[in-house]
Amino acid sequence: MFGFILRRLIAAVVVLILTSFLTFTLFYKGPTNPAAALCQERGRCTAEKQEALETSMGFNDGLMTNYGRFVGGLFKDRTISQGATYTCDAPCLGISFRTKTEVSKDLLTYYPATLSLAIGGGLLYLLIGVPLGVLAARFRGTVFDKVLVGGALVIGSIPYYVFALTAWIFLTLQTSIFPTTQYVPITEDPTQWFLGLLLPWLILGITGAPTYARYARGQMLEAMGEDYIRSGKAKGLTQRKLLFKHSLRVAIVPIVTIFGLDFAALLSGTIFTESIFGINGIGQWTLTSLRAPTDFPILTATILIFAVFVILGNLVVDLLYAVLDPRVRLT
Amino acid sequence: MTATDTTPEARKASGTPLLEVKDLTVRFPTYDGLVQAVSDLSYTVEAGTTLGIVGESGSGKSVSSMAVLGLHDTRSAQISGSIKFNGQEIIGMSENDMRKLRGNEVAMVFQDPLTALHPFYSIGKQIIEGYRIHNNVSKKQARARAIEMLGLVGIPQPQTRVDDFPHQFSGGMRQRAMIAMSLVNNPDLIICDEPTTALDVTVQAQILDLLQKLQREFNSAIIMITHDLGVIAEIADEVLVMYGGRAVEYGVTREVLTRPEMPYTWGLLSSVPDVAGISDVLVPIPGTPPSLLNPPTGCSFHPRCTFVSQVPDNLCVTTLPVLERSSTGSSEHLSRCHLRDPAAIYETEIAPIVAPDRTESPA
Amino acid sequence: MNTAAPGLPADQPEEVSGSPSQAELLDLEAALAARPEFQPHKAPELDPTVKPILTVENLKMYFPVKSSGLIRRTIGQVQAVDGVSFEVPTGGSLGLVGESGCGKSTMGRLITRLYKPTSGRIEFDGTDLAPLSTRELKPYRSDVQMIFQDPYSSLNPRHTVGTIVGAPLVIHDVVPKKQVLTRVQELLEVVGLNPEHYNRYPNEFSGGQRQRIGIARALALQPKLMVADEPVSALDVSIQAQVVNLLQDLQREFGIAFLFIAHDLSIVRHFCPEVAVMYLGKIVEIGDRDSIYGHSYHPYTQALLSAVPDVKQAAIGGRRERIMLEGDVPSPINPPSGCHFRTRCPIAREICAKHEPPLLQVGKRHKVACHFPGELGKHPVEPLTSRLLGVDDDGNPDPGGSPDASLVTKPGYDDTWFDLDTKTFGRA
Ligand SMILES: Nc1ncnc2c1ncn2[C@@H]1O[C@H](COP(=O)(O)OP(=O)(O)OP(=O)(O)O)[C@@H](O)[C@H]1O
Ligand SMILES: Nc1ncnc2c1ncn2[C@@H]1O[C@H](COP(=O)(O)OP(=O)(O)OP(=O)(O)O)[C@@H](O)[C@H]1O
Ligand code: SF4
Ligand SMILES: [Mg+2]
Ligand SMILES: [Mg+2]
């Protein structure tokens, strides 16, 4: 087990290095020149000015040197010259071109919103999806099952932003059934935190749950057909125990796998949800960084965050697998 | 086991057998049509005895015995006839009453012990669970019972192995654990659905030994489903030969296997070589097992039977023979065949192939 | 007709029974299904004079076992096949029996060179296949074919029967493209399937019929040797006999030699004039049918044989006397020292833990690997091998003794052997 985790962590670091390096290369060899944008920002850009800016930003020092500086900044404070000179505390992810603030500090500001959204949405994926799937499997072939499968298909075929936007317009903007969506830190006001995120959570949950319901239904049907469920029945177990204990225990394992990856995606920011509901999370932050001129330090940071979550998600899923399934011995 | 009139003693006095299956018919409606898995099956099992059920794949062995435990999904199976256990009718019994019977008075051992045990729960946990469904005892008491049962079925160091998972056991040990789980409530009837098919012969011998030992100890009745006539010969008191969902031969093992009366049983006997090499000739049964969607008319074995022409009036093709005592046979032996004098045919044509030693010196 | 089954009276029912109605029975059978394999088939006999087509010498296959931890070192080996030697006569058949996991399938995969052996020789028709590369093997691939156990998973469900059976013909370019179909239909006919069904898919066939498709595919290249790995285990008894008889007909008709792998001792007895019994990667006893089934000398063979349930027991009632083996087969990763069987052997003694018993020839065509070889109930009290190994009866080094040089296990049989009664080498 320990060897497994260690091996996976080493692999994770290698992947992270590769990802960050690739992003960096794009940044440097890409078609846009950040120095040009910066230069224009300060009015009347001449060739010399731009030249000087490029030199001070270190563009002439080569890719490897710059990458080295970036990695170094993760561990110790550095100063960054970007027109003016900024100090950047470790772990330093750079200075935003646009806001001139430290990317890592911004990240800390925006992240709680995304995290809140992800946790609630992810929980609802499971809490709505899995029980519905289990019930559909239990009442397989009945009207309930058919309505559920059909409903899942319909919801699945509506584009997410249409769904979210409609819900927002009708449920908060026009009727105020739900309070205005917003992000209030939980430390500030738990009630407001909850109320402000309620609709986004529900929308995330309702749109994500059908996938889980369908998947859970399939997994449950498979599990319920297994020989050991028949043995359980032959022992005299109740239908409820067979369903919610013996079958679900098996069906949940593959569900956890896809959930791990979905959750990683949620943690990396939900661009549509954040924009539509006006929540300032890293999704929106990423979106603004993409507006020309591209804010590369932010972009690099968000790509790295995404990579970290995908890798961690995978690792956690594998570890959970070993916990859930005693046949899997992680060696 | 609670009502006084169903105690074994009372039953014996009143003459009701432990299990009495009568005209059991099980059908499954499917997209392709109605699968006639079991048709008009009748048999009885007395306490402490063993009934062997043989037949090829798809002949309805598992379906018929699963009906005894009420394991069929009532939404997808049409079941008719009567199954009386300890005088109680099982068909139509409420799910709640049925559950009290399952695992408690009637238990089942399945063919593949790896897939029949839950892979995520330890062996001990599964036995404990089975015990606590039917007995109001503490976890600790149940655990002690599980360890005792594992010891009884010959698992070495049961105190530690009780916490192992099924995949940590070998095939033979898993089947022992499965038997321990079935026997934990001292059932009156154990249905073994091919308990040794997945095992090596040496392990099969161990398991059969164990079953017999436990049967003697607890006076349980056993229904042993198998496709190996050798297993039947060694442990069954009575044997039921199934073909195409019907009983085609039924009686005391010794009678049925030494004086078989039905061409399918003859075919079964002549298509297995024997290890002692007394009969070194192999005569297969031609053709393939019948479809249960469109079973053959008349005798379901007629498309594969080589004796059809010895029966007058094309009876084999037109009329279903009755399961009855043949004109020359004994009362302990029923068969379903139109042949007039099967005993004579067996003596002259079949015995020389399947039991040449016996024809030389009649027993 | 070839030499493997001299004068086999398979299609002469008079041999079986002299009664007049017997002839009638078989007429009918012929009318019902004009297939030879539905007629009574006798067990083939051994012809000791034919040359071997396959000679396996000291063959080993060790699979590495990796450690856990950061660096995955090889910490052990699964000794799946551990120094096996035998011969298969041209057009004859050798049976390979033993419990699950003893290395039978691995043996089959080595001979068809699906695995590259760790060491040893696989001499096929005069060529050692063991060291050959995949490319060098190609000319031999058609000569050695395999039939697999599972008729359900061994055929590609998306290919028609014609494609499946014709594939080897196309790959090896044996017949012109235009004639492939004709040849496929011939092959289907040979194995008793309707040649018109070449366009169907495997799922439209029953288990027995699928196994026939597998056999037709193996036959396509007219192999000289077929490795049949449990060819009938997955089939119903009534269908097993059909397939066994079909294989027997094919063997007779085309002179194909068989390495017949099975755990069913009765089927092997019927099919193979010679049998090798394996335990944990080693051959513990090998010999002709009579030596193995009539008077085996190894306690494992004896236990195995006695464990087979016997229909004949119905006449006597109760269960047969048998030698009960305790426990399960040990792991091939750390097999017991000395004799691999000693942990379950009812007659094991000290010497068994210390020395591996040599596979000693004890009859004209009979070899056994046991320190105490003897018929059931007549195992000697003193180890017969101590003098040959140069040790005393407890297996401790004997100052005066030295190991006999002739103990190297070779395939095949010698003209002289160790006589169990006189305890000396000699001829019968
Ligand atoms: N739920 C079901 N729906 C439809 N058909 C079924 C169902 N269960 C069983 N059958 C069919 O009923 C027939 C009898 O099956 P059964 O399992 O009793 O055979 P068996 O004698 O136990 O065979 P085996 O030796 O392979 O276990 C088979 O043809 C099977 O396909
Ligand atoms: N590719 C492999 N890697 C590692 N171990 C293997 C491999 N193939 C087989 N083994 C091991 O080698 C041993 C022999 O396996 P093999 O499949 O040859 O047995 P077998 O005699 O054919 O058994 P069965 O009767 O169950 O088919 C087993 O312990 C098996 O686990
Ligand atoms: S009734 Fe006819 S077809 Fe059926 S087994 Fe008897 S002889 Fe054969
Ligand atoms: Mg069955
Ligand atoms: Mg194998």
Report on this model:
The complex is a heterotrimer of chains A (331), B (363) and C (428). Chain A is mostly helical and 331 residues long. Chain A is 73% helix and 3% strand. Chain A has two domains: 2-101, no CATH class; 104-324, MetI-like (MetI-like fold), CATH 1.10.3720. A two-stranded antiparallel ribbon of chain A has the order 1-2. In chain A, a hairpin with a 1-residue loop joins strand 1 and strand 2 (84-88). In chain A, helix 7 (160-174) packs antiparallel against helix 8 (190-224) and helix 12 packs antiparallel against helix 13. The longest helix of chain A has 36 residues, at 103-138. The model of chain A has no long low-confidence stretch (mean pLDDT 84). With 363 residues, chain B is α/β, with parallel strands linked by helices. Chain B folds into two domains: 17-236, 3-Layer(aba) Sandwich (Rossmann fold), CATH 3.40.50.300; 250-354, no CATH class. Chain B contains 15 helices and 13 strands. In chain B, the strands form two sheets. In chain B, strands 6-7-8-3-9-10-13-12 form an eight-stranded mixed β-sheet, sandwiched between helices. Chain B is globular. Chain B starts with 7 loop residues before the first helix and ends with a helix. Mean pLDDT of chain B is 88; it is low at 1-6. With 428 residues, chain C is an alpha/beta fold. Chain C has a domain at 52-278: P-loop containing nucleotide triphosphate hydrolases (Rossmann fold, 3-Layer(aba) Sandwich), CATH 3.40.50.300. Chain C is built from 13 helices and 15 strands. In chain C, strands 7-8-9-4-10-11-13-12 form an eight-stranded mixed β-sheet, with helices on both faces. In chain C, strands 3-2-5-6 form a four-stranded antiparallel β-sheet. In chain C, a hairpin with a 7-residue loop joins strand 2 (52-66) and strand 3 (74-89). The longest helix of chain C is centred in the middle third of the chain and has 18 residues, at 237-254. The chains are: A mainly alpha (331), B alpha/beta (363), C alpha/beta (428). Chains in contact: A-B, A-C, B-C. At the B-C interface, helix 8, helix 9, helix 10, helix 11 and helix 12 of B face helix 1, strand 1, helix 6, helix 7 and helix 8 of C. Strand 11 (281-282) of chain B pairs antiparallel with strand 1 of chain C. Bound molecules: adenosine-5'-triphosphate (ATP) (2 copies), iron/sulfur cluster (SF4) and magnesium ion (2 copies).
